[in-house]
Amino acid sequence: MLKVNFKLSAIWQLLFLLLLIKSATLLAFASHGDRTQFFHNCRQNCERTNCSADGLEIQEQAVSFYGQTIFDRLFGWRCTDECSYGCMWRTVYAFMERGWPIPQFYGKWPFIRLFGMQEPASVLFSVLNFIMHFRMLRKFRWHVRPDSPCYMLAHIFALVCLNGWIWSAIFHTRDFPVTELLDYAFAYSIVVCSFYCMLMRMLHRYSLFLRGVITLACVSYYINYFAYLSSGKFNYSFNMKVNVATGVVTAVGWFIWCQRVRTRRPYFRRLLRFYVLFAMAMSLELLDFPPIFWILDAHSLWHLATVPIVPLYYDFLIEDCQTLRKEKEMVQSYPYFNKDI
Description:
It contains 13 helices and no strands. The protein has helices at residues 2-28, 37-50, 60-66, 70-74, 79-97, 120-143, 151-173, 177-202, 208-230, 236-261, 268-282, 298-306, 310-330. Residues 1-30 form the signal peptide.
């Protein structure tokens, strides 16, 4: 009991520390490379010399210079985008020659473009997360019978995660306003779904009416938050705080559950390990540094760190559903069970 309480306290403190420090980081690392006169003049001259009037097409004399690949054209790299990309690197080199810190551009570090992808490492690691969730969902379906309690709940979680990682890969491939919106919105859908699954697991033996009311409340809340993100009043710091706060509430709920069932359900340790490791992986977001080899930054490493810990959560779901099904077979009348487990 003391160990569980200690871990609960430690994770709570770690997540809130992450919230406070990350908020300060967002303010401290304001984008300034794109606001320099050097970058502005470079881009203006490039667009005037090399781009068509609408900024979409590259002038004939500059086609060979840019040498766009099929991937660049496929992912919509227009002439103005090429100018921004080229002037970004000219600005970076100018800063480096003067010994100044590497600047950010439009809120992002400079990354080398690869196969038309703006942030190739984050794309790759998002795809790896998608593959891991897909494989673990197949494993879950193989080991758990469809008539098991919480069977559909696990599917809801997996499908929401798969959708979220798809949009993460799309956004890191090309940063447009719509891809940014959908990435942030569906990333939060994973957080909300985790919270919903925690509640439904604890209340799965309660009335269908109660579970329906909670489901409606969670769906309504998420739709309202999605509308907020779509309103054009998007605030990065506020969105991050909402994500962390929702995640903390979910983690606390699961830790309380782990403490209550620690003597009856020994597999709770898988869930505990998952949240401890997830909190440690999330702390990578604190290490905001220029990309290593202009590819690997702290955010992409966070995506990478989540890949190996995903099986812990699904292994917990598998054993939990199997255990609940055995209990369902042994006892036909639910009132004889403790509804809190």
